[in-house]
Amino acid sequence: MGRFSQRTQRLPMYQQIYRAVAGAMLIVIACAIGVSWLADDDRRHRPAFSTFASIVEQSLPPASASAQAQRQAVEDWMARTRIVFALFSADGQPITRPDPRIPPPRHVQPGGNFDDWLASRFVWQLADGRVLVVRFSDNRAHQPWMYCVLLLAVALAVAASTFPIVRRITRRLEDLQRSVEALGEGNLQARVDIQGDDEVGRVARSFNRAAARIEALVRAQKTLLANASHEFRSPLARIQVAASLVGDEHNPAAAEIAQSVRELDDLVGEILLASRLEMADATHMPVFETVDLTALVAEECARTKAQLQADHIVMQGDPRLLRRLVRNLLENAWRHGGMSPVSVYLQTQPAQQFSLRVCDSGPGVPEAERTRVFEPFYRLAGSRERDGGVGLGLALVQTIARHHGGQVWCEGRATGGACFGFSGPCQAQPQQP
C-alpha cells in the first residue's frame, strides 16, 4: 500500500484526481450491480413458480409415455402460455426438441428447484425424476447486461464531464508551479495569471504580491550597491592622485598605498559589473553578438603565457564580458597555482555545447569547498595572506556564465592542482569537406 501511494503521488495532480473519481465511479457501479443482483432474484416468486410447475406436471403424460406424447403436451402448454418449456429425462436427455436457450440443468437435487443468476429460468424436478425447465422471457435475460451497460454509460459521461474541470484546476496549479520555479531561478518578473477567486486564485494573488515585493527589495539592494560602488570611484581617484603627489615612489608605504588603491578600484569595478549584470538579467533579455571564442581565449592565453589546446568555437555572447570571464579564470589560476604553468582546454561537446577548462598545478581546492569558491567574497583558508585578492573574481565568472546561459564548476586534477571550467551553448560548425 505504501509503494502504491508513493507511485500515485509521483503522478501529475490531474491524473491523481481523475483516477480517484474514476475509482469512485467503479466502486459505485460495482455496488449498484451487486445490490441489483441481490434485490432482483426471484426467491419471492418461487412459490408461484412451484405452483405453476406442479400444474404443468399434473397435465403431462407419465414418464412411461412415448417421447412424442410428452413432447406434444409440452408444446401445447407453450402455445397456451407463450412460455418456453423444456423437458429432460432423469438422466438429462432432452425429451422436447433441443433449444439452445435452455441447456440441460446441472446439479439438480431431487424435489428441488433453483433459478440461475439471470433470473430467467426456473427448474423443477418432477416426482418421477424428469426435469422441467421454464424460460419465462427472452428479454429478461438481457436486462442485467443492459443495466450494466447503462451504468457504464453513466460512468463514461461523468468521466468525460469531470476531466475538463479537473484539468482546469490542475493546469492553474501547474502555472503557479512554473512561476515559483522561475522566481527561484532568478526571474524576478515571474507572475501568475490569476483566474477565478477560489483557493488557487487566492494563492496566485499571494504569490504575485510576494514576488513583487521580492523584486522591489532586490532591485533596491542592487541599485544601492551599484550607486555606492560608483560613488567610491571618486574618493579612490583622489586618494590615488594625492598619494602620487606627496609620496615617494621608492617609499614602501607609498607603494603599499598605491597597491591598496588599485585593489579597491578593481573591487569596485567588479562590484559594479556584477550589479549591472544582475540588474540586466532581471529586467530584459541580453543582446548578444557572434563571438569567436577561440580567438578571444588565444589572445588572453598569449597575454599570460598559458598553454592552449582549442577547437574552433563560435558562440553568441558579449565579447567584453567573455574576455573578463577568461581573464579572471587565468588570473585566478596564476594567483592560486603558485605561478606554475597554466593549461587551457577549449573543446566542443555534444548537443552544440562547449567546455573551457583552466587548470593549474597549485595546492588545489578541497572537494567540500569546490562549490563555495564561486560565492562572493569567499576565500580559502590562508589564501588572503598568500595570494591576495578579495574573493569576487570567481563570483563574477559565475555571473557572466549564467548571463550567457552557461555554468561553471571546479574539479581536482589527478596530477595535483585544480581545474576551473565554464560550459555553455555554441553555434554548430559546418563540417569540413
UniProtKB/TrEMBL annotation:
Write down any Gene Ontology CC term.
plasma membrane
Q: Where is the Histidine kinase domain?
A: 227-428
* Residue ranges the record marks as coiled coil: none
HAMP domain sequence ranges: 167-219
Task: Name one matching Pfam family.
Answer: HATPase_c
Q: Where are the transmembrane segments?
A: 20-39, 144-166
InterPro entries attached to this UniProt entry: 2C_sensor_his_kinase, HAMP_dom, HATPase_C_sf, HATPase_dom, His_kinase_dom, HisK_dim/P_dom, HisK_dim/P_sf, Sig_transdc_His_kin-like_C
CDD domains, A to Z: HAMP (cd06225), HATPase (cd00075), HisKA (cd00082)
Record-listed E.C. numbers: 2.7.13.3
Kindly list the places in or outside the cell where this protein is found, as annotated in its UniProt entry.
Cell membrane
Gene Ontology molecular function: ATP binding; phosphorelay sensor kinase activity
Q: How does it sit in the membrane?
A: Multi-pass membrane protein
Q: Which reaction does it catalyse?
A: ATP + protein L-histidine = ADP + protein N-phospho-L-histidine
Q: Which UniProt keywords apply?
A: ATP-binding, Cell membrane, Kinase, Membrane, Nucleotide-binding, Phosphoprotein, Transferase, Transmembrane, Transmembrane helix
Q: Which PANTHER family match?
A: SENSOR PROTEIN CREC, SENSOR PROTEIN RSTB
| The protein's name | histidine kinase
Can you name the source organism?
A: Amantichitinum ursilacus
In the record, what lineage is assigned to the organism producing the protein?
Bacteria, Pseudomonadati, Pseudomonadota, Betaproteobacteria, Neisseriales
UniProt lists the gene as: rstB_2
